[in-house]
C-alpha cells in the first residue's frame, strides 16, 4: 500500500516503453512471506515485521528479457480467507502464479493443493505456475524438506524453487523463470496454432455481434 | 526440474487428490471451510479501493496501448492493394521472372513479394528443432500484436480504446467504428452466421459456471455437503458462495466480483472495464465444458444473473457478445424454481431490450421507428425517431442522413409512386429525426400483409448515397396502441433502388473515369458521356461541353474543356485530360466538373456540376480514394449533376 506515493513505482507504472505486459499473482497462506518476497524483488527491501496485506496490492517492474522489455504487474494477495472473494477476482487476469508456502509451516504446505484448486477454478487454463518454498534461511525451524517440496511440484507438474526473501535467495530467479516460461508459452501458442491469429482477424472482437434480430428476420 | 517433462504432462494442473480434498471438506478442515470471517472495516475498504484505482490507471494505459497496436495493423491492412493472385497482396507488384519472387504467407496463404514479407524461425511444438516460415507483413504484424497485447494468452484481443474513437467519435462504444475499420467489419460477417452453434452454447455454459462465485450470492449459501462428487471446482464455488453471502449480509460493501468492486467505486457510472472478464468466454472449447455440467446450479439462472449484473454495470455503453447466450439461457432455465425463473425471464427480456438498444452493431446501423394506425382516418402514422451508427460518408466520418418511406404491397410493389421523405439531419451518424410521416388511404386489412419500407440516404448536392434500408411488418400494428421498434439496417435492394430512382435529378448524369498515372505523375480524367441533360436551346436540345478544373491547384495546371457536341442531350465525349499532381496533393484537391451549353453570341448556359475530391462524399469520395489507392487503373462511375454552379 505504501508504494502508492513511491516515485520509483510511479515511474515504472507510467512507463509505456515496453513490449509485453505480464500479470503475475503471488498466492499462498497467510504469513508465508508473499509481501516480503514482492518487496524484495521490486524494491530490494526487507522488514521482518509482519503486516497483513489488506485484500490486494500490486507493484510494477519492467525487466529486460530476451531483447524484450517486459512490464510485470505483480499482484500481492492477502492470504487470509476473509479477503478471498476479492483476491480470486484477480486470478483470471493473471498469466503466471507464484504459489508460495513457508518451509517452517506444515499447514502452509498442506494448503498448496487447495491453492492449486483455486487456480484451476478461477484462472485461465494456460496460466503458468511456479511453486515456491519461502523462508529457506530458517534452517533450524524447517519442517518441510526440499525433497518434499520438489516431489509435490513434480506431482503438480510445475517448477519448484526454495527462496528466502530475507537473505535474497532465488527471488530474482523465480521471477525470471516465470517470465521465461510465459515467453516460451507465448511463442509456442502462436507458432503451434497460427489459426488462432487468423481466426481472430475474422471477428474475435467480443463486441462483434451476430447480425439480425427477430425483427430483421421478418421478410414476410 | 526439467521443462521437457512438464510439456509431456497431459494436464499439469490436475490436482492429485481431488478426492482427498472432498473428504477433507467434509471434515471441515483446511482453509476453504474455515468459518472465521468478519466484514471489511472502512479503512480496509479504503485501502482496497486505492489499489483498484491505481490498477485502473494502468488498465486505461494498457487499453490505449493495445488500441495503438490494433490501429497499426489496421493501417497496414488498409494500405494493402489486393490486386489479385499474380500481384503482391501488399505492394501490388506483379510476379515474374525478373520481377520479385513470389512467397506464400504461412498464415493467410496469400502471395506476397520478398519485400513485403519476413522470414521467422519457429520451433516445432515438442522438439528443439526449428523451421523457417515466411509471413507477409500483415500477418507478422498481427502475430506481433497478439503477443504484445496479451491476446495470445486470452485467445482474443482484450478490450482496447482506439486512438481514433477517443478523439473523433461521440459515442463511447469501444467497438471499432464501422467506417474506420471497414475491413475488419467485413471479415466478421462470416463469423456472425455461426451464431447459435453448439460451440457457442458450450462456451456460455462454461462461463456460467466459472463466474457463478460472483453471482450466486443471492441464492441460499450452501456449504460443502452437496458437492462431494463434484470435484474441486464445485466445492470451492460453494464455499465462496457462503463467504459472499456473509459479506453481503454484514456489510454494505458488496464485493461480488472484480467488476462490481469497480462499479462500487465509480458509483456505477463507469463502464465495466475488466477486459479479462469479457475476454474469458471466447476461449472455452467444447471439450472443457463437460466437467462443469454436473454442477447443480442451473445454467439459465447464472446466465441471467450475470446479465443482470453486467447490464447494470455497463450502462449500455460497452458492447459485448453476451447476447449469444440468449437462447441457451432460456432453454436451460426449466430446472430452476418458479419464482426465480420469473425473475430470470424478466431480466432476460430487459436484457434483450438493452441488447437491441446498445449492443448489436450491424454494419449499417439501427433505425428506431414508432408506428400507429388510425382506423377512422385510414392513416398510418410512421414516426422516424432516430437512427444510430450509420455509415460514415465524408472524410470526417459524418453523414447527413434522411429517410424515404413507402409501403410495399403483397404484390411486392410500392404502394405510392411518391416516396415520403423526412428532412435531413446534418453532420451526424446518430440522427434524431423525430418526424412523423403519414400514409393516407391504408385499409385495415392491408396492414396484415404489407411492409413499411424505409431507406436512408445521405443528403449531398451531388447525389444521394444509400445508407441503409429497413423493412417493418405491419401486421403487428394495431389501431389501439403505438408500435415502437428498433430495426437493423440492411443493404440495398430493388426498393431502395426504386427510391433512389424516384429522386429527381433534372440535370442529368455524367460518366467520369479517373486514373492516377504514376509514370506521368498526373491525374487522368476521362469524360466519357452525359445523359438526360437539360434542353437549353429553342430547338429542344443543347450543345453541351464539359469543363474541368482542379482546385486548389498545387501544380498550376490549366483548366480543360471537352469539344462541343452539337444538338444533343446525351453527348459522348471519351476525352482524356491530364492534371499534374502528386498523390499527396490529391488528398487535398477537388476536381470541379461543370457542364455547359455552348451558345454563340451570348454567354454559355450552365447545365450542371459535380465535384470529386477528398472533401466530397459517398460514392464521389470513394471513387477519389480508389483512384489514389489503386493507381494506374481507371475507376469509372456515374454521377448526378447538381443544378448549382460552383463558380457562383
UniProtKB/TrEMBL annotation, chain A:
Pfam family, one: Ras
Domain of life according to the entry: Eukaryota
Compositionally biased region (Polar residues): 204-220
Protein name: Ras-related protein Rab-3
Region (Disordered): 194-220
Lineage: Eukaryota, Metazoa, Ecdysozoa, Arthropoda, Hexapoda
Organism for this UniProt entry: Drosophila ananassae (Fruit fly)
MF GO annotations: GTP binding; GTPase activity; magnesium ion binding
Entry similarity comment: Belongs to the small GTPase superfamily. Rab family.
Gene Ontology CC terms: presynaptic active zone; synaptic vesicle
Keyword set, alphabetical order: GTP-binding, Lipoprotein, Methylation, Nucleotide-binding, Prenylation, Protein transport, Transport
Gene name per UniProt: Dana\GF11093
GO BP: cytoskeletal matrix organization at active zone; maintenance of presynaptic active zone structure; protein transport; regulation of neurotransmitter secretion; vesicle-mediated transport
From TrEMBL, chain B:
GO cellular component terms attached to this protein's record: membrane; presynapse
GO MF annotations, alphabetized: small GTPase binding; zinc ion binding
Keywords (A to Z) from UniProt: Calcium, Metal-binding, Repeat, Synapse, Zinc, Zinc-finger
Keyword Zinc-finger: yes
Annotated stretches, region: Disordered: 163-245, 317-354
Skewed-composition ranges (Gly residues): 229-240
Main localization, broad class: other
Subcellular location as annotated: Synapse
Residue stretches of biased makeup (Low complexity): 163-172
Domain FYVE-type: 82-144
GO BP: exocytosis; intracellular protein transport; regulation of calcium ion-dependent exocytosis; spontaneous neurotransmitter secretion
Residue intervals of the RabBD domain: 34-156
Residue ranges occupied by any C2 domain in the UniProt entry: 363-487, 506-625
PANTHER family: RABPHILIN, ISOFORM A (PTHR45729:SF6)
Name assigned to this protein: Rabphilin-3A
